UniProtKB/TrEMBL annotation, chain A:
<dbReference type="GO" id="GO:0005634">
    <property type="term" value="C:nucleus"/>
</dbReference>
<keyword id="KW-0539">Nucleus</keyword>
<dbReference type="GO" id="GO:0009409">
    <property type="term" value="P:response to cold"/>
</dbReference>
<dbReference type="GO" id="GO:0003682">
    <property type="term" value="F:chromatin binding"/>
</dbReference>
<comment type="similarity">
    <text>Belongs to the RNA polymerase II subunit 5-mediating protein family.</text>
</comment>
<feature type="compositionally biased region" description="Basic residues">
    <location>
        <begin position="396"/>
        <end position="407"/>
    </location>
</feature>
<feature type="compositionally biased region" description="Polar residues">
    <location>
        <begin position="315"/>
        <end position="324"/>
    </location>
</feature>
<keyword id="KW-0175">Coiled coil</keyword>
<feature type="compositionally biased region" description="Acidic residues">
    <location>
        <begin position="196"/>
        <end position="209"/>
    </location>
</feature>
Automatic annotation (TrEMBL), chain B:
<protein>
    <recommendedName>
        <fullName>Prefoldin subunit 6</fullName>
    </recommendedName>
</protein>
<dbReference type="GO" id="GO:0009409">
    <property type="term" value="P:response to cold"/>
</dbReference>
<dbReference type="InterPro" id="IPR002777">
    <property type="entry name" value="PFD_beta-like"/>
</dbReference>
<dbReference type="GO" id="GO:0051087">
    <property type="term" value="F:protein-folding chaperone binding"/>
</dbReference>
<feature type="coiled-coil region">
    <location>
        <begin position="86"/>
        <end position="120"/>
    </location>
</feature>
<keyword id="KW-0175">Coiled coil</keyword>
<comment type="similarity">
    <text>Belongs to the prefoldin subunit beta family.</text>
</comment>
<dbReference type="Pfam" id="PF01920">
    <property type="entry name" value="Prefoldin_2"/>
</dbReference>
<dbReference type="InterPro" id="IPR009053">
    <property type="entry name" value="Prefoldin"/>
</dbReference>
Length: 407, 131
């Protein structure tokens, strides 16, 4: 393993043996069938009760009814039913009460209500049991398929690490096969990220000032911008709001609501990841630096960054199979970082700038999840998100260039 | 080897005894659960009867089924009887709860001792394998 995350790969089968899971599922199913039997019984009672209520109400209609009285086990004789309004009602525990038809009907109705309440509670428990059974079944199926749980240490350093307590949902069977390759790449990118972080922190203070100024301006711009950057999808916060919505189907109203942006960013990040990956591939040498810069200036370059970032994000994704736990802080960062990576990279950055200057204001914030390594950036990112990468592309470009010069 | 073998056998016998005791405890717990369920149902029924008795006015006739005979009872007397029965059942339930708790504690401690025994057996076996 490289100096990347040290992980353990455990087959899901070991944690949740298929047989045991299926056995547990069967047990739960038995409990469910028991409950179903109970439910049927109770429903029968409720039906009987209803029939009784109607009978009790009908009997007092006549002074006496002519009936066939059962006699013994197999005989009947004709007789009459008298005192049609007097009922001996069983209250329970061997206690009877003499009541009229109306009172009897009320007693029965109250009993019916109790039955209904019991049925409802039984149904609720059955639902819980069914959910449990489903979970067991799915776990058994997953274990049978040979899913693997990947657990990697979380190293709280500048380097990004994939730290995810292996969850059964991690189905990265591929990564388990090639951990070494990913680790090396990962380590390289981590180193770059460290560099970028430093630069970012320097530029952050600058950015914050600019952002506060641009916020109001950017808000207005967001609504109007309709840059048809389908590729960028969730790139520009302000500019590609409409685009993003159309393309991604998610609300890119970053300005509108920060809360929403998180969710949007997540989707964006998903889309952009592929783009970032491309970027990563191109700029394998300096992804970290790029990311930092991107944070600060995500405007024009973003669109271009998307394509480039695709590679980057994709690579990162592979390496951080579990790093997607916190997409919130990452999307904005990744977006910026994606842009930066493009900007800082020699050829790619120039391309990006060209493309971005071409008028596409898509915020190609490829989702490079750097939540671990770039926590301080989150707050500025939020603010920067609000002010959709400054309505002035030129401003961003210049700043970007500036940063390039700084490096 | 010869010395460890009888020791090993003894340990295993111990384990068996403990396992039997544990299963007995578990059966007791199951029985306790059963009885508790019964009592709970009876308690519910009695409470229902009390509710209906409260709703009756004084002139109503209340009968009690004793064997094959329906005996007329005073409303107040019937209410008192039902209330006493409810109290009795609640007390029984509480007693059963206490017993259940004891049984569960015993079960846990038995499980632990069995685990320890098993570990000891494993180490002894490992030692035997080495030698």
């Amino acid at each position: 393993m490289g100096d990347g995350a040290k992980g353990t790969v455990t087959s899901l089968d070991a944690l949740f043996p298929a047989k045991e899971a299926s056995r547990a599922a069967r047990r739960v199913e038995e409990a469910i069938s028991e409950r179903r039997g109970e439910l049927r019984r109770l429903r029968g009672f409720a039906a009987d009760n209803a029939a009784l209520v109607s009978l009790v109400q009908k009997l007092p209609d006549e002074l006496s009814h002519d009936i066939m009285v059962p006699f013994g086990g197999a005989a009947f004789f004709p007789g009459r039913l008298i005192h049609t309004n007097e009922f001996m009602v069983l209250l329970g525990e061997g206690y009877y009460a003499e009541r009229t038809a109306k009172q009897t009907a009320e007693i029965l109705r109250r009993r019916g209500k109790d039955l209904e309440a019991q049925i409802e509670s039984l149904k609720a428990t059955m639902l819980d049991l069914e959910a449990e059974a489903k979970f067991f079944n799915s776990t058994a199926a997953e274990a049978a398929e040979g899913l693997v749980e990947i657990r990697e240490d979380y190293v709280e350093e500048n380097q990004e690490k994939v730290s995810e307590p292996g969850s059964p949902s991690s189905k990265h069977e591929d990564s388990s096969d090639k951990p070494n390759d990913k680790d090396e790449e990962y380590a390289r990118i981590m180193a770059r990220l460290d560099e970028l972080e430093k630069e970012e922190s320097e530029a952050e203070s600058e950015l914050e000032k600019e952002e506060s100024v641009a916020e109001s301006a950017s808000r207005d711009d967001e609504e109007e911008d309709d840059a048809g950057d389908v590729d960028a999808a969730p790139s520009d916060e302000h500019e590609d709001e409409d685009e993003v919505e159309d393309a991604v189907g998610s609300d890119e109203d970053e300005d509108v609501s920060e809360d929403d942006t998180w969710g949007n960013r997540e989707t964006k990040s998903v889309l952009q990841k592929t783009r970032v990956q491309e970027m990563l591939d191109l700029t394998a040498a300096k992804p970290p630096a790029d990311y930092k810069q991107v944070h600060e200036k995500a405007a024009i370059v973003e669109t271009k960054v998307q394509s480039a970032a695709k590679a980057v994000s994709f690579n990162l994704d592979n390496e951080q199979s579990h790093g997607q736990q916190k997409p919130h802080p990452l999307p904005p960062e990744s977006r910026y970082s994606a842009q930066r990576t493009e900007g800082t990279l020699g050829s790619t950055s120039s391309q990006i700038q060209n493309i971005s200057s071409a008028g596409r204001k898509a915020f190609t914030g490829s989702v490079i999840e750097h939540d671990h390594c770039l926590p301080p950036i989150q707050s500025p990112n939020i603010t920067s998100l609000e002010e959709p990468s400054s309505s002035n592309p030129s401003k961003r470009v210049s700043r970007f260039k500036m940063q390039k010069g700084n490096r | 080897m010869a010395s460890s073998s009888p020791a090993l056998r003894e340990l295993q016998r111990d384990l068996e005894n403990q396992a039997n005791a544990l299963s007995k405890i578990q059966k007791d717990i199951a029985k306790n659960h059963q009885v508790r369920k019964q009592y709970t149902i009876q308690l519910g029924e009695n409470e229902l009867v009390l509710k209906e008795l409260e709703l009756l006015n004084e002139s109503a006739n209340v009968y009690k089924l004793i064997g094959p005979v329906l005996v007329k009872q005073d409303l107040a007397e019937a209410k008192a009887n039902v209330k006493k029965r409810i109290e009795y059942i609640s007390a029984e339930l509480k007693r059963l709860d206490g017993t259940l708790q004891d049984l569960e504690d015993k079960q846990n401690s038995k499980k632990e001792s069995i685990l320890k025994l098993q570990q000891r057996i494993q180490t002894v076996q490992a030692g035997k394998a080495k030698s």
